[in-house]
């Protein structure tokens, strides 16, 4: 079962192709805000190098956020259009899940935080379980200081992952009993998306392309600016 996986919810553009959960090829591009320019060539490159034709795909998987507004729209829209054209289902997976899943072998509570800009982070927590991680809090957006204060008050041993952690080292670095994940745990993993999406396809947890929506936890900069000018 061949699955194409896309995530553009952060500054990284990630694309992977997998067969029955095993990754055949993967590309990660840290291109800032060039998601629209980089995504299509990355898809083409991965498919060409793995010898997978789009017509062979059983599903398209996409990270649905939370994440940066423009990049998130690029990935979700691309996945929906491709799936509709290929007549295959879409599997949407929260992008914070894709940050946390590669840390599943830790014994610590995993805290995933994505830089939301504007002095905020998207964040949630996961408890390692056999074979993966289980989310134990809601997807939220808050200031790094508030998140760090809550974590410090809990007193648990933590593993902090995601580019939101590295973007605010003063806040997250002050938490006792917390370990900070390295660069390999800073962005949503396309390989994790392949594995998680394949399992969901096997369980029949599929969506029609038009039913998949980005997970926005706040309004876009354009909406806020429009409201400011209108008032």
Structural account:
- There is one protein chain.
- The protein has 231 residues and is of the alpha/beta class.
- The protein has two domains: 2-95 and 188-230, 2-Layer Sandwich (Nucleotidyltransferase, domain 5), CATH 3.30.420.40; 96-185, ATPase, nucleotide binding domain (Nucleotidyltransferase, domain 5, 2-Layer Sandwich), CATH 3.30.420.40.
- Helices cover 36% and strands 28% of the residues.
- It contains eight helices and eleven strands.
- The strands form two sheets. Strands 6, 7, 8, 9, 10 and 11 form a six-stranded mixed β-sheet that branches. It has a five-stranded mixed β-sheet with strand order 3-2-1-4-5, sandwiched between helices.
- Strand 4 (59-63), helix 2 (69-86) and strand 5 (90-93) form a beta-alpha-beta unit.
- The longest helix is centred in the middle third of the chain and has 18 residues, at 69-86.
- The protein is globular, with a radius of gyration of 17 Å.
- It starts with a strand and ends with a helix.
């Amino acid at each position: 079962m061949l699955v194409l996986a896309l995530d553009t919810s952060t500054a990284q553009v990630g694309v992977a192709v997998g067969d029955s959960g095993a990754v055949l090829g993967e590309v990660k591009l840290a291109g800032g805000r060039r998601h629209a320019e980089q995504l299509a060539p990355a898809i083409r490159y991965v498919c060409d190098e793995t010898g997978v034709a789009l017509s062979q795909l059983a599903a398209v998987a996409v990270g649905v956020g939370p994440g940066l507004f423009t990049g998130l729209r690029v990935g979700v829209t691309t996945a929906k259009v491709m799936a509709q054209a290929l007549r295959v289902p879409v599997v949407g997976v929260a992008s914070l899940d894709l940050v946390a899943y590669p840390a599943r072998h830790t014994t610590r509570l995993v805290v995933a935080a994505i830089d939301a800009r504007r002095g905020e982070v998207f964040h949630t927590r996961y408890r390692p379980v056999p074979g993966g991680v289980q989310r134990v809090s809601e997807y939220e957006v808050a200031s790094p200081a508030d998140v760090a204060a809550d974590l410090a008050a809990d007193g648990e041993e933590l593993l902090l992952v995601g580019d939101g952690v590295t973007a605010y080292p003063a806040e997250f670095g002050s938490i006792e009993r917390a370990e900070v994940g390295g660069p390999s745990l800073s962005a949503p993993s396309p390989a994790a998306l392949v594995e998680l999406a394949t399992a969901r396809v096997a369980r029949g947890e599929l969506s029609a392309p038009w039913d998949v929506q980005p997970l926005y936890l706040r309004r876009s900069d354009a909406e806020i600016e429009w409201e400011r000018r209108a008032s």
